[in-house]
Amino acid sequence: MCLQNFPCQEVERHNKPEVELKTSPELLLKPILICRNEAEKCLIETSINSLRISLKVKQADELENILTKKFLRFLSMRAEAFQVLRRKPVQGYDISFLITNYHCEEMQKHKLIDFIVQFMEDIDKEISELKMSVNTRGRLVAAEFLKQFI
Amino acid sequence: MSQNLYFLRERERMACFDRASPALKETLLKIYRDNKPTELDQRLFEFGAVEYHIRSSVSDPHYVHLSISTPLLSQEASVAQGISQGTVQTIKGILSDIVELVEPSREGYQLTLRLDFSKIPQGKDSSKIITEIASIQAAILSCQLKEMLSNVASQDTSPGMYKLIKLLYHPREPFFVVRQPEKTIAVFPMRFQENTDVIIATAFFQELMDVGSSEAWAKVPLCTWSPIPPPELRGEQMEDLSTNGGFVSFDILPHHVKGKRLDKTVWNLLNFYAFVKYHVKCTRGFIQRRMRKRLDNLVKILHKASSEEGGYVDDAQVAGCGCIKSLVSVSKTNTLRRRCRNFTKKVKRMRCPIKIHGFRRFRRRWLTVPKFSSAFKYTKID
Prior knowledge:
The structure holds 2 protein chains of 2 kinds. By secondary structure, chain A is of the alpha+beta class. Chain A is built from 5 helices and 4 strands; from the N terminus they run H-E-E-E-H-H-E-H-H. Chain A is about 45% helix and about 15% strand. In chain A, a hairpin with a 3-residue loop joins strand 2 (about 40-45) and strand 3 (about 50-55). The longest helix of chain B is centred in the last third of the chain and has 36 residues, at about 270-305. The termini of chain B are far apart. Classes of the chains: A alpha+beta, B alpha+beta. Chain A: InterPro entries: ARPC2/4, ARPC4.
C-alpha cells in the first residue's frame, strides 16, 4: 500500500485515482489474483496513487446467494459510511474497495489492512450466521404451525 | 429460544389469523356500548370480496341487522345452491338466543342475521359473545371445508378414484382438495412476487417437511413439497398449475378430522397461505435488522482505524477525558504541520520543475542578494 499523491497527467489540476481510469499504463502495477477456489477469489489492482481490492464471496446454494447479494448491496449502498468502499463492485466480483493516498494519510495503513482482512472474515461469518438463523426460524415456525393440528 | 419467543409474540399480534373480523367486532362493540340508540346503516369490506352490512334503527333499538356476503370456497356450490343446509344449521346453533336467521336474506347478500343485543349479558362475556358473532364469516367458510374433510371418514369414494375440488379462500390463490378413499389431500400451489421470497419460502417448506416427518410429530398431517405439480392435479388449467414456489401437500387422515381437531385442521388449512406470506415477510425484516446491526459494527471498526491517527474523533467521544483531548489536539497540530509542509513542497516544485543535484547549495552561497541596512532613512519627497 505504498501510495503517493499523483496529479492527473491527462487533465490539468485534476487528481484522479489512476487504478480506475487506467489511461496511463506506466502508472499501473501488475494486478494480483488470489483464488482459494473457483468460487472465492480476490483481485488486487494497484497504481501509483490508488489501490482497488475486489472480492468474490463463496455462495454454496441459492439461499447463500440471495443473502450475500442482499448484504453486500446493503453495504455498497451505504459506502459513504465506510469511505474506502466502492458503491458498485467490479464486474465479476461481489464487493470492491478503493483506497487512495488520501485514505492512507488520514488512516493508519496497518489498521486499514486489518480492517479489510477483518471485513472479509466478517462477511463469511455473517452470511453463515444469517443462513443458520433463517433455517432455525423456519424450523421454529414450522413446529408452531404443526402444533396447531394437535 | 429468543427467536421462539419473538415469533410467538409476533403471532399474537397477527390479525389475519383471528377468526373474528376486527372491523365488524369494533362496530358491534360500539353499538352495544352506546347508551343512546342511533340510526346506523354501514357497509364494511374485507379482503376485497367479503361484505358486511350493519343496520340499526332508533325505532328498534335492541335489534341490529347484519347481512353477510362472502365468496364461497367452492365455486360449484355457490352457483348451485348458495350456502349449504349444513352451514345454515351450524350458524343457527351459534348463540341461538341472540342470533336469529332472517329468511329470505337481504338482496345481494347470502345471509341476514338479526342480533338481539338486549340478551347479551353485561360484563366481560359481552366482548366474548360479540367476538363470536364477528367470526360468523369464518364459520361459513370453515363449514364448507369441514363437510368435505368429514367425508373422509364416510368413505364415499370408490377405490382408485379421486375427486378434485378447487377452493378459493384468498383472491387469486386457489388451493385444491383431492378426496381419496383413505385420505384427503390438500394441495397448495405457491406463488410469490419476488425471487427472494421464493427462496425463503422454499427453505421453510424443506424445514416443514423435515419437522413433519420426524417421530415426534407423527400425529400431524404429513406434509410434502415438490417443485412440479403432483399427479392428482393432472388435467387442471395451466394458469392454476404455473407457480414459482412449488406445491405443498397435506395428507389429511380420518383421525385428523375427529371431534375438536376438525375445527383446528380446517382453520390451519384455510390460513396456510397467509401463514407462509407472514413468515416470509418477518424473515425479510429479520435479515434487514441483522444487516443494519452488522453495518454499525463494521463502521465502528473503521472509525477506530481513523481515530487512532487523530484525524476524526467525535467531540462526544472525548468529552469526558481531558488528557485524551490534549493528545488529540497535539496530533491535530502535527497533521496540520505535515500538510503545510507538503503544500510548500508542491508550490516549490511548480516554481522549479527541474531539480539539479547540488544547485541549492550553490544558489544559497553565490546567488543570494546580501541584506544590508542603510543609515539613511527614506524621506518622502513632496
